[in-house]
Amino acid sequence: MPTTADFLQATQWVGILTLVCAVLAVLGFLFKWGVRFRLVGVASFMAVLTVGSFSLSLVPFAPTTVPGSVPYTVVYDNGAAQVVIKVPPTITESELEATLRQAGINQFSSGRLSQGKRLLVLRARTILHPEDGVSQPVFLGQVIRSLDSNGEDLWDLEIYRDRLAELPKATNS
User: Fold this and answer.
1) 8 A C-beta contact, residue 50 and residue 14
2) Which residues contact 71 (CB under 8 A, 6 or more apart)?
3) What single string gives the DSSP state of each residue in 83-134?
4) b/e code 32-58 from CB counts within 10 Å (16+ = b)
5) Structure confidence by residue, pLDDT tens digits, 75-116
6) Which helix (H) or strand (E) covers residue 158, if one does?
7) Is the whole model's pTM more than 0.85, yes or no?
């Protein structure tokens, strides 16, 4: 996975290429080349690429890993205040708590649209198959966290122990 330092180095090279394209565009106007307007478009696009790679060099985008968590999949994210993750049906209570904490950290973004409350509701669910051809979603817990602060001081983590007890126990093989 590329690091922020890799993007900073790419920004330098793309910036140099942007300057070359801009010089060519200026020369195109001075000498009235037929491709002068295309060169302006190329130089403009290169400027957008330069700004984009520079922004990627500023923000670390490596996800946080909480010890004891299990892999999860985001199955619903409305880009605002609701996220649902899928966890395996063999998850334990301690793994669920760590996974909810990890997802709460990784799904945080102050740019989420919250429709007034500035809270993110992140729910964990799994799918049970009580019989062939029947799937039953079971919500196991949730985190309600503030979108104003990235600290864990404004979190409300809740685990539904009664639903967790319904899950099949993992077998050691």
Assistant:
1) yes
2) none
3) EEEE--TT--HHHHHHHHHHHHHHT--TTS--TTS-EEEEEEEEEEEEETTE
4) eeeebeebbebbeebbeebeebbebbe
5) 999 888 899 999 999 999 999 999 999 999 888 877 777 667
6) strand 155-159
7) no
Residue 169: the pLDDT is 77
Listed residue (99, 105, 81, 82) closest to 141, CA to CA: 99
CA–CA gap between residue 58 and residue 19 (Å, rounded)? 21
Q: Helices 36-58 and 4-30 sit at what angle, rounded to 10 degrees?
A: 160
Q: Give residue limits of the domains in the chain.
A: 4-58, 73-165
Give the pLDDT score at 20.
Answer: 97
Q: Is 150 helix (H, G, I), strand (E, B) or coil?
A: coil
State the Cα–Cα distance between residues 140 and 125, nearest whole angstrom.
5
Q: Which residues of the chain have pLDDT under 50?
A: 172-173
